[in-house]
Amino acid sequence: MSRRALATALLAVLLGCAAAPPSPSPVLDARRSSFDFMGPDVQAMQRDDNANPAMLWVQDGQALWRKAEGPQSRSCASCHGEAATSMAGVAARYPAWDATSASAVNLGMRINLCRQRHQQLPAWGAEHAQLLGLETYVAMQSRGLPMAPDADPRLAPLRERGAQLFAQRLGQLDLSCAQCHDQLAGGKLAGSTIPQGHATGYPVYRLEWQGLGSLQRRLRGCLTGVRAEPFAANSPDMVALELHLAARAMGMAVETPAVRP
User: Fold this and answer.
1) What domains can you pick out in the chain, each with its CATH number?
2) Which residues participate in catalysis according to the annotation?
3) Contact 126, 214 (CB under 8 A)
């Protein structure tokens, strides 16, 4: 389905539901992973590491974790040792506050900062295959652990900004994230179930993409779908949305590497 057709279908769903009172926002005991809204074949693909296509990126990430690079021939393992031990629970806390840059960073940004500061290597660009591989490998070490967003008070203003953006109508279709993923969650859009939109499995392998992608890629797709100008990669507004989504999913299990339709 084209983006234009998707946006038109979504508008029709919203107009059709306009007369009904909105459903309440998801609460702790009512939250459901997007995994629960998928068909059994896709669920089976995520459950089985031998069938999960994202594991190809995980393998690349594992190799990159151990690869010594830069003027001092350092690898991630040189500082952090075995990822299974040192990275357990790390992805569940991101985005987090970076004291050196005095800003919020997501996990991919943190990896690039380490690459620049400690390996003296250039940062990878957004959606770079190697960045996605290493990020997915690191995030997988938190699989099954609860989402535990960074509680640093310096993140509060940006997290609040993310909540505002989630509820704000955007684009030519004048729609918000909350209208779909809170008010219409569980309904149908072009034959597909609308999920609650919890960011518990990123980076994810999407069948639609035939590849792996970050949470920011998914957010850009949503913004384009409502005919809004997407936020720039790693911009404050993009990270703010990620912060809000992390808080919204607090306590839910990390699923990385997830598979989605």
Assistant:
1) 3-48+148-260 (1.10.760.10), 55-140 (1.10.760.10)
2) 222
3) yes
CB 213 within 8 A of CB 137: no
Cα gap 38→227, rounded to integer Å: 26
The number of CA neighbours under 13 Å toward the Cβ of 108 is 25
What's the CA gap between 71 and 113, in Å, rounded?
16
Type of residue at 164: Q
Which residues does residue 104 pair with via DSSP β-bridges, in sequence order? 97
Burial class (CB in 10 A: 0-12, 13-18, 19+), 86: middle
Predicted confidence pLDDT, tens digits, the chain (261 residues) = 444 444 444 544 443 433 333 344 444 469 999 999 999 999 999 999 999 999 999 999 999 999 999 999 999 999 999 999 999 999 999 999 999 999 999 999 999 999 999 999 999 999 999 999 999 999 999 999 999 999 999 999 999 999 999 999 999 999 999 999 999 999 988 888 899 999 999 999 999 999 999 999 999 999 999 999 999 999 999 999 999 999 999 999 999 999 999
Q: Which two tokens stand for residue 231?
A: 């936020």
Say which DSSP state 32 is in: -
DSSP H or E run through 165 = helix 156-167
Residue-level length of the chain: 261
Identify residue 45 by its one-letter amino acid code: M
Confirm whether pTM is higher than 0.85: yes
